[in-house]
Amino acid sequence: MTLHPIRTHLLTTPGQLVDALQIPFSDEQLEAIVAPLEPAVIIAGAGSGKTTVMAARVVWLVGTGQVRPEEVLGLTFTRKAAAELAARVAAALDRSGVVAGQEGEGAELVMTYDSFAARLVSEFGLRIGIDRDPVMVTGASRYRLVTRVVADAPGPFRSISRLSHHSIPERVLALDAEMASHLVDAATVLAECDRAEARFQAAPLYRGKPLRDVTRALDATQERRDLIDLVTRYQELKGRLGVVEFADQLREAVRLVTQVPEVGEELRRRFRVVLLDEYQDTSAAQARLLRGLFAPAVATGELGFPVTAVGDPYQAIYGWRGAASGNILEFPQQFRRSDGSPAERLTLRVNRRSGQRILDVGNDIAADLRATPRDEGVRLVAPRARRQELWRRPRSTPSETRSTGWPRRSSPAAARGRRGGTRPSSCAATRRWPRCSRRCVSVTCPSRSSGSAACSGCRRSRRSSPRCGSSTT
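The structure assignment produced for this chain is given below.
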């Protein structure tokens, strides 16, 4: 296969990038896009255009000749997000014209974190004794396997016997996934159970008996012991059948990178820039894998690999599956620049989805989520042209309220107007709403003089008008 030449060095200024993509980037977006090839973390609030910024950064790096498209690695969580990011990058490259549209050119690699770990094990697994591609099991297949383990377990299980028959397999699967996400084995969990039991048993008594919360904690510890036994049997069954889950692949990938440093060296030669999307939702195992690959130790002298992490600690939603939002806060310390200083921290604060009043409420709520004093987060603001908008619905008349389905609350004065005591000065419904109340049976609009013409709908049906909102008969 012949690689066709790539037209590089087409971009020299940020203004040329704006003209090529036809996107009016803000100053903070341009700062993130044209940042040098050094580690950086972008704290991007909701609706701040982080995907657009990531795609534009690829265009800038390729257009200025710093990298080639096939030297770009992008990682995100879901297949849908990976497809969207890949499509955005490809469309931005094509729109800007920095890559010649000829068949055979290299393309950027965008995949999920789980797929990336599985690819590492598949490509380099022989170096740690994994000599064949295992079968991936998900969903119902996992549940059938763990149900088989529970049914064949000899027992006796004193603590989990009180649980329902269907909840035990789910507990086993959840504990197995948590252990893989935190890179702990059964021996480590049992040792922690011993320490916890010792502390609870030493708790003071109340009237000669342990407190109810202490009793519950001891029961939970014993339940964890029973579940650990089932998790161990479940892992052994997967090993005998030659099947794995994504969590198992991630654990093996971490072991591979830890034991074989040459894997990281190969990845750093293959890719020149790495983009990490939604980094606040990475687990301890994923963060350790990425550090082992792209943040080598200071002793190696290979600091400063250009990794750009994007995320927001206030949008961490996967804590239930082992994600740690502190990963993005610790990124500058873990991924250092070539001179040993912490990675640069950039922010995207302009939200283009909401008005300033809505953002102020969200900012006040998010302020309580700060984990530490140094966790500044990002306070969102609306674009300058929209910061003064009031974002409130215009006051409507009783007839408009009925025609649009809003709560039918009316004042006594409005009620007198419907009975004929006071006639409104103008028919607001004819100007604002496309249809009137079903109760309108008048021939002429009551907001007009008695000699004026009737609404067109009233002339046709003699029952209701599509424009008049009055209910006066």
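Interim note for the steering committee: Confidence is low (pLDDT under 50) at residues 1-6, 388-411, 413-473. The first helix runs from residue 14 to 21.
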